[in-house]
From TrEMBL:
Active site: 9 (nucleophile), 15, 127 (proton donor)
The keyword Hydrolase belongs to this UniProt entry's keyword annotation: yes
Gene name in the database record: ptpA
Pfam family, one: LMWPc
Species assigned in the record: Streptomyces gardneri
Enzyme class: hydrolase
UniProt GO MF annotations: protein tyrosine phosphatase activity
Protein name: protein-tyrosine-phosphatase
Family recorded in the similarity comment: Belongs to the low molecular weight phosphotyrosine protein phosphatase family.
UniProt keyword annotation of Hydrolase present: yes
Keyword tags: Hydrolase, Protein phosphatase
PANTHER family, per the entry: LOW MOLECULAR WEIGHT PHOSPHOTYROSINE PROTEIN PHOSPHATASE, LOW MOLECULAR WEIGHT PROTEIN TYROSINE PHOSPHATASE
Limits of the Phosphotyrosine protein phosphatase I domain: 3-153
Amino acid sequence: MTYRVCFVCTGNTCRSPMAEHVFRRHVEEAGLGGLVVVESAGTGVWREGEDANPRTVSVLEENGYDSAHTARQFRASWFPAIDLVIALDEGHLRELHRLARTPEEAARVRLLRSYDPAAGEALDVPDPYSGGREEYEECLEMVEASSGGLLAAVRLELEDRTP
């Protein structure tokens, strides 16, 4: 059985596709590519069908990551099929909790930076959309810093599933 992780930001063109590609690389390098499905979505519908933001693509590619992406909106009906929903900021966390239809679904929603012990109280990944290159690079740094802890948590979940 596969373990599904979905990263969620606002429009699914900047932060969540960046997190998707970075975490997918971590999963593949850990030899878990056949066990973990990594995807992303946005809370809003207005960017659905668009590619990732060109600045996201540029930062990903310059750092050796894949960048192929088509934006889509997160649907409440997806909760039963997703094991872990990763929000990129508190606003997304609130929206995802609102969409959850049961306490069990809501319990599967977490903030990405909660997996970075160095994050402290600053658990939001700021939206780089209105910024320049520096904001996108900072976003990548935050995503990369959180991915190791997230991978460790997913590994534990997979071990718990193994009879």
